[in-house]
Write a structure and sequence with these properties.
Strand content: 15-25%
CATH topology: N-terminal domain of TfIIb
Strand order of the largest sheet: 1-2-3
Shape: elongated
Bound molecules: zinc ion
Radius of gyration: 18 Å
Structural class: alpha+beta
CATH class: Mainly Beta
Largest sheet: 3 strands, antiparallel
Number of strands: 3
Helix content: 40-55%
Order of helices and strands: HEEE
């Protein structure tokens, strides 16, 4: 009984919502700039998942997927 309910909800809303939220997170994560640990300017951009690149001093920082460490 409980299982049927859960699957029905996920099929109707869960999957679609999850995909949208993930896309939004990716966009925001790619656009937002973060503080560089080297030059302390907000010029740290997400280059790839877990890799951050500073526009100013050119260093690469490994961090979490959406936030530099
Ligand atoms: Zn920098």
């Amino acid at each position: 009984m409980g299982r049927t309910k859960k699957v029905g909800f996920a099929g109707k809303y869960g999957a679609r919502y999850g995909k949208r939220a993930r896309n939004m997170l990716l966009k925001i994560g790619a656009q937002k700039k973060h503080k560089c640990p080297e030059c302390l300017k907000n010029s740290l951009k997400r280059e790839a998942s877990g890799v951050w690149f500073c526009d100013r001093c050119g260093i690469k920082v490994a961090g979490k997927a959406y936030k530099p460490a």
